[in-house]
Specification:
The radius of gyration is 23 Å and the shape is globular. The longest helix is centred in the N-terminal third of the chain and has 17 residues. The chain has 2 domains: 383 residues, Rossmann fold (3-Layer(aba) Sandwich), CATH 3.40.50; 95 residues, ANL, C-terminal domain (GMP Synthetase, Chain A, domain 3). 30% of the residues lie in helices and 27% in strands. Strands 2-1-10-9-11-12-13-14-15 form a 9-stranded mixed beta sheet. Strands 16, 17, 19, 20 and 21 form a 5-stranded antiparallel beta sheet that branches.
Length: 506
């Protein structure tokens, strides 16, 4: 049976192969569970929510680290007909209250190790029922779980807040149909099977991390949760020991794997033999780092992808066979999605003409929660306006130029921050970087680069400036190069340029 609702990814795999491995975790008290056991845990949460009086369409917030509690709460809430609201596990009490209140959540389900933030937030959430997730395995079969009413494909499944890496977070309302359509496409182009074992390093509250859970369960494979990526070699030990076939990450994930772990060395020694594929999304990865990763994992597949929370995760991918000839491209639209590049008047751009990227497809969100003005701004007759500037080449591939808000004006020239960042990342001593523009009365924007060396003291700002003179015109070379030990990131690993702007302004 073809799944039509998000929780069907779990229940249908449980019905087909109840004893197949579904979930492995390596936290203290880690678990190894089959599909029937995970489905029973989710059904127990559905029953828990029914006992709390949750009705169809009620919002249920979820605050838990990756693991059984999160998965059971997510699928249990959806099966109850509720709208799930994943919460950032790093949220401070003020942010937590904001998200829960903004979503109008009736219930907040939480995992362990959140006492401090919940105790601080509880007085401001007096109308919210706050309870620990209770996934008592074996307590109730999915078919017998009490539910407030089975949702339909057109009904909202989740409110997922955008990362806020480039502005104020907004709640994207994703329907069951949106998510299911996207997952079907991902499973198709990644060619996933029940034999796949996905190493999950990204948090499930982040739409990319969530897509890893969905795609693996839809294929009937195994999710291997590893919450210790702050020790990257420990994560690689898990990959080896659990015979993981795939790994996924944002650009900073791969920068860490290549620069601050034994990943490349292990591959060169013939280890990590189970690894068959790696996917990258969550921001543009520099061509230099992409080539590094390609070289290290060859002949395994590297799948470079592009997407947005508003698109239920994914919009485009580069077929691995094409990647060597188009490093830096975001590739082609995934099955079921149409991408177009358009001028400000809405007319389609010519080949290689830069315009704004728009997307259509069954995966595009319903809108932003309680924000009709912003919804109207990004959803229109041409589909979803991504806010990214791009061009389409003669072969039909798309190339990002940069975020519209990251297009800077320097002395009358239009400059893309991404182009400068890619040039900086070509330097062999650079780990990662970010470029912003600061207001300047004469120039419009004064370029400032924040650069993290691979090892402390391995980079000199003047030498980096000379390096850039061989690759960029003078007006694109940052006047300020700030060497840092680290850059501010959110929990999914995205660099927070807003934090850098605020720091400099403040």
């Amino acid at each position: 049976m073809t799944p039509t609702l998000v929780h069907h990814f779990l229940t249908q795999s449980a019905a087909r192969t109840p004893d197949s491995a579904a979930l492995v975790t390596h936290d203290p008290g880690g678990v190894r569970l089959g599909y029937a056991q995970v489905a029973d845990a989710a059904a127990a949460v559905t029953a828990q929510l029914a006992s709390l009086g949750v009705a169809k369409g009620d919002r249920v917030a979820i605050l838990a680290h990756n693991g059984l509690e999160w998965i059971a709460a997510w699928f249990g809430a959806l099966a109850a007909g509720a709208i799930a609201v994943p919460l950032n596990t790093a949220a401070d009490p003020h942010s937590l209250v904001h998200y829960v209140t903004d979503a109008g959540a009736r219930v907040l389900l939480h995992g362990p190790r959140f006492d401090r933030v919940l105790n601080a937030a509880r007085p401001l959430l007096a109308d919210v029922a706050i309870h620990p997730v209770r996934p008592e395995r074996g307590a109730v079969h999915p078919a017998r779980a009490a539910s407030a009413g089975e949702p339909e494909a057109k009904d909202p499944a989740a409110i997922i807040y955008t990362s806020g890496s480039t502005g104020r977070p907004r709640g994207a309302v994703l329907t069951h149909g949106n998510i299911v359509a996207n997952v079907r496409s991902i499973v198709s182009y990644l060619e996933l099977t029940p034999a796949d074992r996905t190493l999950v390093l990204l948090p499930f509250y982040y739409v990319y991390g969530l897509s890893l859970l969905h795609m693996t369960f839809a294929a009937g494979g195994t999710v291997v949760v590893e919450n210790r990526f702050q020790y990257p070699n420990v994560a690689l030990d898990t990959l080896e020991r659990e015979r993981c076939t795939g790994v996924a990450g944002v650009p900073s994930t791969y920068a860490i794997l290549m620069n601050r772990s034994t990943f490349a060395d292990r591959l060169a020694r013939g280890e990590l033999t189970s690894l068959a594929w790696a996917t990258q999304a969550g921001g543009g990865m520099s061509p230099a780092l992409t080539r590094q990763v390609m070289s290290a994992i060859a002949p395994r597949r590297l799948v470079v992808m592009y997407g947005a929370t508003e698109a239920s995760a994914r919009l485009s991918y580069v077929p691995p066979a094409e990647l060597p000839e188009c490093v830096g491209s975001i590739g082609r639209a995934i099955p079921g999605v149409e991408l177009t590049v358009r001028r400000p008047d809405g007319a389609p751009c010519d080949v290689d003409e830069v315009g704004e990227l728009f997307a259509r497809g069954a995966n595009i969100m319903q809108g932003y929660w309680h924000d009709p003005d912003e919804t109207a701004r990004v959803l229109g007759p041409h589909g979803y306006r991504t806010g990214d500037l791009a061009r389409q080449d003669a072969a039909g591939r798309f190339w990002l130029v940069g975020r519209a808000r990251d297009m800077l004006k320097v002395g009358g020239h239009r400059v893309a921050a991404r182009e400068i960042e890619d040039a900086i990342l070509e330097h062999p001593a650079v780990h990662e970087c970010a470029v912003i523009g600061l207001p300047d009365e004469l120039l419009g924007d004064r370029l400032r680069a924040f650069v993290v060396p691979k090892t402390p003291g391995a980079l000199d700002a003047n030498a980096l400036g000379q390096f850039l003179k061989e690759r960029l015109p003078t007006y694109k070379i940052p006047g300020d190069i700030d060497l840092r030990d680290a850059l501010p990131k959110n929990e999914s690993g995205k660099i927070m340029k807003e934090a850098l702007r605020a720091e400099v302004a403040g």
